[in-house]
Amino acid sequence: MKNTAHLLNWQPPAVINCVGCIEKLAPKLNENNIKKVLIVTDEGIVRAGLLKRMLNSLNEENIIYFIYKGTAANPTSKNIAEAVQVYKEQNCEGIIGFGGGSAIDCAKGTGIAAVKNTSDLRRFKGVLKVRKDLPYFAAVPTTAGTGSEATIAAVITDHDTDEKYAVIDTKLMPNAAVLDPELLLGLPKDMTAYSGMDALTHAVEAYINRSNTKQTKMLSEEAVELIYKNLYQSYTDGQDIKARTNMQRASYFAGKAFTRAYVGNVHAMGHALGAKYNLQHGQTVAKILPYILEEYGETVHDKLAHLGDIANVTDEKDSNAVKAEKFINSIKELNNKMDIGENFPELRHRDINDLADSAYSEANPLYPVPVIFTKADFIRMYKKLMSV
Q1: What is the arrangement of strands in the sheet containing 164-168, beginning at the earlier edge strand?
Q2: Alpha-carbon span 367 to 127, nearest angstrom
Q3: Are 146 and 104 in contact (CB under 8 A)?
Q4: What is the pLDDT of residues 184-215, one digit of tens each?
Q5: Are 296 and 328 in contact (CB under 8 A)?
Q6: Residue 260, Cβ density class (10 Å: 0-12 exposed, 13-18 middle, ≥19 buried)
Q7: pLDDT below 70 — which residues of the chain?
Q8: Distance CA 231, CA 312 (A)
Q9: What is the pLDDT of residue 190?
C-alpha cells in the first residue's frame, strides 16, 4: 500500500531541494524499484533542453524512459488520453511530470487514467473520487507559481466541451517533488511574472479563506514575504539564483497553503476565462486578484492589512483599511511593472453569462471564501474586467 502518512503534513514524502538536485531523482526512482518511466512535459521544455541533465542521470541509473511532449498550456483530456496510451503501451511503472503546472497536472491526470483505465476524467471532478493509488509519481517544476508539486489537485480542460474542472484527491499528492532552482534560470520574463503572481494569488486566497489554519496562515505569510522580496528581481534578472530559489520556495509554500485552505473566487473566474479563451492561468488570476479583493471590502481588511505589513508596503500609522488598500494597490503596481495588464480584451458580452455560470458552479459550495458571490456578482465582476 502506498505510504500516506505524509498527507498528515500535506506534502510529498520526498522533497529534494537544492541547486542541481535534478540529478538525485534517478537514484530515488531506483530506490523505489522504478525501472521504466513516462515523462510528461511540453514542446517548449524539450526545445529548451531542460530535460538533458535528468535524462543523463536516468541513463546512468539504467532507467528506461519515454517522453510525452504534447501537453497544452491548459492540459486537456486529449493530452491525457495520448499520454496514458504511451504509458500503457510501454508498460511504464512510474510518471514524471516535468515543467510548469500544466505538465504536472497532465501527469497527475495520466496517473488517474492509468489506474482507472479511462481517459474520461469528468467522473472524478470534485473531491475524493479517485480513491485509488496512482503509479509512482515525481513532480519537477520548472516555474515558480502553480505549486502543483505540493497539492492534491489537478485542473483539466475537457477537449470536447472546453469545460475546465478540478480533480481533488489525496491520491494526487506526488511521491517526490524535485525543487531545483537551476531549472528556472531560463524562464522567460512573461512566464516569470505570470507564475509568480499565480503563487501570490494562491497565498492570498488561502490566507483570507474561512478554512485556513495556523499552519496555512504561516505558509501564506512566508510565501507573500518571499514573493515581494524576490519576484521582481527574478523578473529583471532571470539568472539570479538566489531570487529563483526563493521564488521556488514561495511557490511550494503557497501550494501547501491552498491545498489545505483552498483557493477562491479569483480562481473560479480565472478557470472559466482560461478555458473559454485559452489564456495563461497565471496572467489571468493576476489581473482578477485586485478586483476581487476590492469587492470583498472590509470583510478582508484586517487580513490584507497584515499581509501589507509583511510585504512592507504599509506605514505603521495607517489604519487597517488604508493598509488593505495599499496592499491591493501594490498588486496592481506589480502587474503594471511586469506588463501583465489589468483587463481582458478577449472578453465578450455574449460569453459573460456562461462564464458566470461556470465560475459560480466551481466556487459554490466548495470554496470557503470570505464573501460568497451570486451568479449576478460574477456577471458584474466579469463586466469590470472587460477591456474599455
Answers
A1: 126-127, 164-168, 153-157
A2: 12
A3: yes
A4: 998 999 999 999 999 999 999 999 999 999 99
A5: no
A6: middle
A7: 1-10, 387-388
A8: 14
A9: 96
First vs last C-alpha separation in the chain: 56
Answer whether 2's CB lies under 8 Å from 170's CB: no
For residues 284 and 274, is the Cβ–Cβ distance under 8 A? Answer: yes
Burial of 103 (0-12, 13-18, 19+ CB in 10 A): buried
pLDDT score at 8: 39
Burial class (CB in 10 A: 0-12, 13-18, 19+), 205: buried
CA distances from 24 to 14, 131, 151, 156, 196 (A): 11, 30, 22, 29, 26
HEC per residue, the chain: CCCCHHHHCCCCCEEEECCCHHHHHHHHHHHCCCCEEEEECEHHHHHHCCCHHHHHHHHHCCCEEEEECECCCCCEHHHHHHHHHHHHHCCCCEEEEEECHHHHHHHHHHHHHHHHCCCCHHHHCEECCCCCCCCEEEEEECCCCCCHHHCCEEEEECCCCCCEEEEECHHHCCCEEEECHHHHCCCCHHHHHHHHHHHHHHHHHHHHCCCCCHHHHHHHHHHHHHHHHHHHHHHHCCCCHHHHHHHHHHHHHHHHHHHHHCCCHHHHHHHHHHHHHCCCHHHHHHHHHHHHHHHHHHHHHHHHHHHHHHHCCCCCCCCHHHHHHHHHHHHHHHHHHCCCCCCECCCCHHHHHHHHHHHHHHHCCCCCCCCCCCHHHHHHHHHHCECC
Cβ-Cβ contacts under 8 Å for 85 (sequence gap 6 or more)? none
Tell me the C-alpha distance between 26 and 32, whole Å.
10
Q: Is there a contact between 337 and 232 (Cβ–Cβ < 8 Å)? A: yes
Dihedral sign for Cα atoms in the order 369, 373, 374, 375: negative
pLDDT at residue 119, rounded to an integer? 82
What residues pair up with 97 in beta bridges, in sequence order?
40, 139
State pTM to two decimals: 0.93
Cβ atoms within 10 Å of 357's Cβ, excluding its own: 14
Q: Find the radius of gyration of the CA atoms of the chain.
A: 20
76 forms beta bridges with: 157
Judging by beta carbons within 10 Å of its beta carbon (0-12, 13-18, 19+), is residue 110 exposed, middle or buried? buried
Please give the pLDDT value at position 336.
97
